[in-house]
Amino acid sequence: MADLYQGPLQSEFDPAPAAIALDEKLRQAYFWIVNSAIISPHYDIEYNLTPPQSFIVGDSKRRLTLPSAQSYSSYVLLPLLTFATRRKCLFVGGPGRGKTASAILMGVLAGYPVKEVRRAMQHGHPQMTIADLLGNPLPADLVGAQRMEDIRIAWRNWLGMRVKIIDEYNRIPTRTQSALLTVMGDNYAEVLNHVFECPDSAWYLTANDDQGGGTYQVIEALRDRIDVIVQALAFNPRFLGELLVRIEEGLRPEEVVPKDIVFTEAEIDQMNADILKIELPPPLRRRLEFFTSQFELSEAAGAQFEYMTKDTARLAAIDWTQLVAADNGRDRLKDLGCQTLNGLSVRNLMTLIIYAKSLAYFRGNTSVELEDLRQILPFVLNDKLTPDLDAPFFALPQNAAFRSDSISWLRHLFDLSNAEFERLGLDHDDPVQQLDLEFSAGLDGLTESEVRTRIGRIERLVGEWCKGRKLYGHIYDDLLKLKYLHQRYTNYLHWLQLQR
User: Which residues belong to any copy of the ATPase AAA-3 domain (predicted)?
Assistant: First the structure.
């Protein structure tokens, strides 16, 4: 039968080509952008299959590494992962570095015409009002309405789009920033008691620096809603020939995006769902827990054990210099927590996990690897984990560059945490994790004697740890976990006694 349909009729009866996998489509989008649209030869997200070739360069003895596996440009990859996960990305860099053009490309990938993306882009300026940002009540309704509910609102079109772009967001007045915060954080806009529900969207904001400067200082809550920061690095003049071709041929990359890499709304939703299914293996999660636990402890900040945190000191507006002077029990060069002014929030950790999953998905893997976490962590925690530049670590000559290069500092911080984790042998001997796994099996069926035995084990472990040991962040969090387990068993023991 197949032979009967050979010849002119063949095309009509050929099966439709198989749909391309979404992760492969995402990779194709990356390679088209990095090779044909955005001139970014900075492959700063490095992977290696074998030890890479490296060279020491210049008087500063900096290391140039030639990766031995597929590596990526953060300036292209991070916005693309933001697109896939529907998160919020901030482009920072000087004027003319292509920040706005990159954001427009993301809108085109979502299927919007270039003109619609440009018109929907919000441009920050000092006179921007809430009405400019969200919409206006209709004038006729303002005159004739008897009730607030009768006033209709002409909402701005950009509120309903799947890609939202705010250009120079640090030029928006403070009051208008608060309205923007509601849209970014809670996904709705409100004018005169009328509410517009926004769809899940990828957000792209631009600024000339990441310090919150501009016409108006960016409010802290708005800065905290930004998930990842990517820097537009300097243009390499060795690629001037490509610019010349674009000028002579009148090419604009956003106007020639191949249809094959444009995503439908359903594909974006499915891609996001697939990313969430990527596994974060328990051993890797444990390393992330250990890293996170380094930074919140501040012994001098609280009298009660639970309140010995940097956040307690921040809320009380305690002078940081006085707090550091009072906290003199630890090795301030060895303790990683002494390098920062704050700890990490729940939102920071959730964002980090989602981006690590998205990077693993982009690379075609079903689970997150340690290197995925190591490469993505600096871009997520940039501007979230604030360095204490007066700490002894930054005073060392070999660490001077970390004062300005926060990406390299955060990656180095993660490396130091992993080295300490391995030195302590926590991959093989983690008594708190063993107790936690035992508790996670459930309490049903435990006898009073078994509960008392477990409580005794917890008390002995706490006693051992408190004998002449200096308190570091990871020990502090482990002790709080042990107190939690102790309390759960204590409550269950009381319940058993009441059942007699």
Answer: 136-226
Q: Which amino acid is at 263?
A: F
Distance of alpha carbon 356 from alpha carbon 138, whole angstroms:
45
Q: Which tokens go with 376?
A: 């993505």
Q: What is the largest CA-CA distance in the chain?
A: 89
Contact criterion met (CB below 8 Å) for 354 and 275: yes
What is the model's pLDDT at position 61? 85
Please, which residues bridge with residue 57 across strands?
Answer: 62
Bridging pattern class, strands 153-155 and 163-167: unpaired
Q: Which of 251, 226, 472 is nearest to 355 (CA)?
A: 226
Domains contained in the chain, CATH given: 26-38+73-276 (3.40.50.300), 282-423 (1.10.8), 431-498 (no CATH)
Strands 62-66, 53-57: pairing kind = antiparallel
Asked if residues 257 and 41 have their Cβ atoms less than 8 Å apart, the reply is no
Contact 75, 40 (CB under 8 A): yes
From CA 441, how far away is CA 456, in angstroms rounded? 18
E-strand ranges in 244-315 read none
Q: What is the pLDDT of residues 174-193, one digit of tens each?
A: 999 999 999 999 999 998 88
pLDDT at residue 475, as a whole number: 93
- pTM for the model stands at 0.91
Q: If you count them, how many residues does the chain have?
A: 500
Residue 346 to residues 224, 289, 492, Cα–Cα distance (Å): 11, 12, 28
User: Angle between the 74-85 and 265-276 helix axes, to the nearest 10 degrees?
Assistant: 100
